[in-house]
Amino acid sequence: MVKDKPFVGREKMDEAPTQKLIGLKLEKVPVREGYPVMLNGENVGVVTSGSTSPSLGYPIAMALVDLEAADSDAFEVEVRGKAHPAQKTEVPFYTQKAES
Questions:
Q1: Helix, strand, coil in percent for the chain, rounding step 5
Q2: Is the pTM of this model over 0.85?
Q3: Is the distance from CB of 53 to CB of 94 less than 8 angstroms?
Q4: According to CATH, what is the number of the domain 17-83?
């Protein structure tokens, strides 16, 4: 079995995860990689990627947050010292509807 063979990263694979990747929907401010994600004024993660979605018409982002905070629905993303509201959303952000 693969788990019985030694390989680089084996120790990390055996550890329980401490963070979770989530999707965020923002109202008007696009965010970029590295911006802090806050919950109740406490830093709980970081944006891994973000942009304004042309097909959806609003800013979206992926963020890596602490496992304990991942179940929350409302977050804030700090952009240039100001907190902007962000809602947790399912990924993928957009699914193409089947043609009838």
A1: 10, 45, 45
A2: no
A3: yes
A4: 2.40.30.110
- Nearest-angstrom CA–CA distance, 22 and 62: 6
The model's pLDDT over 27-51, given as tens digits with 9 standing for 90+, comes to 989 999 999 999 999 999 999 999 9
DSSP conformation class of 93: S
Burial status of residue 44 (CB atoms within 10 A of its CB: 0-12, 13-18, 19 or more)? buried
**Residue 11: count of CB within 10 angstroms of its CB:** 7
Question: Is the predicted pLDDT of residue 4 greater than 80, yes or no?
Answer: no
Side-chain half-sphere exposure of 29, counting CA atoms within 13 A: 14
Asked if 83 and 44 count as a contact pair (C-beta separation under 8 A), the reply is no
- The continuous run of DSSP H or E covering 53 comes out as strand 42-53
Residue length, the chain? 100
